Structure formats: C-alpha cells, structure tokens
Amino acid sequence: MSYSSPTLTFSLDVLNGADFDLSATYGKGETERCVETPWVAKTFAEAERVLDIGLAMSHPDYLGLMIGFLNKGGVIEGADIIKPERVKTRYPEGWRDQILEIPVHIGDVRKMDFSDKPFDAITCISTLEHIGFDAPSDRTDTAFDRPTELDDLPGRSPEADRDALAAFRKALKPGGVLCLTVPGGEGATRTIQDSTGRWAAYLEYGPETWPALASLPGFELVELVGFSEQEEGWKACEPFEKVYEASVGDDGFPRGCIMAMLKAV
C-alpha cells in the first residue's frame, strides 16, 4: 500500500476478524475517522456487495479499508455528486487506478433507484449531514459549488433525511444493513470554511434530530454508539445521551460522532 496509519492498520484487522473494543480510547488529536473507519470495517467484513455514499471525497484511511475489502473479493459501487476523476489527485498513487475503477453513480442519491439489483449493505460515513447542502461545481479550483459569503449558504430541505433513507431502503436487500455515521452534539446547522475559503454547512444531530432520523420508516435500529473527543482521545459515551453534550471545535468541526447500524425491514 502507498499509505499507512494506525487507524487503517486497525481497521484492516477488524475487516479480518479482530474486535473493535468500544471501551478503548482512540486517536488522540485525530478526527472522528479514527472510530468511524474501524466501525464500518465490521460491515465490510460481513458483506459481499456494498453501496458507498459519498465515495469520491473519502479519507485515506477509509479508502484503504475499501481497497482491503476489494482485495478480499468484495464488490463496491458508489453514489456521489462528485466524479472521482475530478479529485483523483487526492488518492494515494498506489491505489488511484483501483479506486477509479469503482463504478460511481453520479447525481443526487435521493433520486437514484437501485431496487433492480439491491445491495447487502450501504455505508454512509459522515455524508448524510451534507446531503441537501452541497452541490457540484464546474470550476477548476473547487469540486463543490459553495459561496464565498456566509450569508449566501443555501438551506436544507426538512425532508432531506427522509428522502435519503427512503432511497437507501430501496437499494438494500431485505435484511440488508445501513452503516451510518453522523456528527453528534446539541443539534444545529454548523458552518465551516473549506480549504478554498468557501463556506459549507452540515447538520449536527442532537436530542431531537437523531431520534427523528432513527425512527424513519423502513429500518430497525440494531446497534448504536456515540463517541466524543476528549482530552485523551475519542471515547464511547456512557450513557449514549452524553454524545449530545459534545461541542464543535473552534474550527467548526464536530467533536461528537453517532454511529448506527440499521437493518432494512
């Protein structure tokens, strides 16, 4: 491999049968990817065909996990508003060709229909919170159509989550699983500036918005854990509701993460 990290090494171990100890502390000074990636590895370990939502902009740790799954004979398709070719320089050179060979369906996933050939699992890792906010750009200097002024940020449809999960349900076999992670905290629309200085927004799920999402029709919640970033690293919240106490950092990025497994019913 052309990239390595402790998170990737551990996630590949989980893919190959190791335990993800929820009582341990992970990734001091890292983002929530340090717990999301091994969490989703459990789904890859039990699936054959996976639809990944938001593949193009994936973190290198997650890309490496997908490469590991592909190398074990797994099948991945993607759904995204961004063509991977647009951002191919983000991918480690040794993986680039293999990543670009993954079929990616381009457009709004809420309008896609995969019911003719449903999947064993869907992975939606820190992506749902952006659906309805982000749009693709034709500019050469940015993949996303984002404003330079904060006041110009678009709103998000109140039906965005319902429409997305309805599309996910249609894309899954009966009994298939949705592996979902979203930012957790008090519950608010958060704003950040991206690397180009443009403004972006995401939804942080709180004590009202998360239960509303988890109770949407078509799914049964089978596993749920909240993590928050603490001084020593990322730790599971006990009880779960403590994830709602996580606050965003000064950079606007989340310090709480909700990770759920939902079964299609």
Quickly describe the structure:
With 265 residues, this protein is of the alpha/beta class. It is built from six helices and ten strands, in the order H-H-E-H-E-H-E-E-H-E-E-E-H-E-E-E. The strands form two sheets. It has an eight-stranded mixed β-sheet with strand order 3-2-1-4-5-10-8-9.
Taking the alpha carbons of the first and last residues, their distance comes to 38 Å
- Structural class by helix and strand composition: alpha/beta
Low-confidence stretches: none
- Mean pLDDT score, rounded? 97
Strand content: 25-35%
Structure notes:
The chain is α/β, with parallel strands linked by helices and 265 residues long. It has helices spanning 6-15, 33-46, 60-71, 93-100, 160-170, 209-214; strands at 49-53, 75-80, 104-106, 119-125, 172-183, 188-193, 199-204, 219-230, 233-236, 256-264. The strands form 2 sheets. Strands 3-2-1-4-5-10-8-9 form an 8-stranded mixed β-sheet. The chain has a two-stranded antiparallel ribbon with strand order 6-7. Helix 5 (160-170) links the parallel strand 4 (119-125) and strand 5 (172-183). Helix 1 packs parallel to helix 2 (33-46), helix 1 runs parallel beside helix 3 (60-71) and helix 2 (33-46) runs parallel beside helix 3. It is globular and about 45 Å long.
Relevant terms:
single chain, 265 residues, Rossmann fold, eight-stranded mixed β-sheet, two-stranded antiparallel sheet, 6 helices, 10 strands, 26% strand
SSE order and pairing:
Elements (H helix, E strand, L loop, with lengths): L5 H10 L17 H14 L2 E5 L6 H12 L3 E6 L12 H8 L3 E3 L12 E7 L34 H11 L1 E12 L4 E6 L5 E6 L4 H6 L4 E12 L2 E4 L19 E9 L1
Parallel strand pairs: 1-2, 1-4, 2-3, 4-5
Antiparallel strand pairs: 5-10, 6-7, 8-9, 8-10
Helix pairs in contact: 1-2, 1-3, 2-3
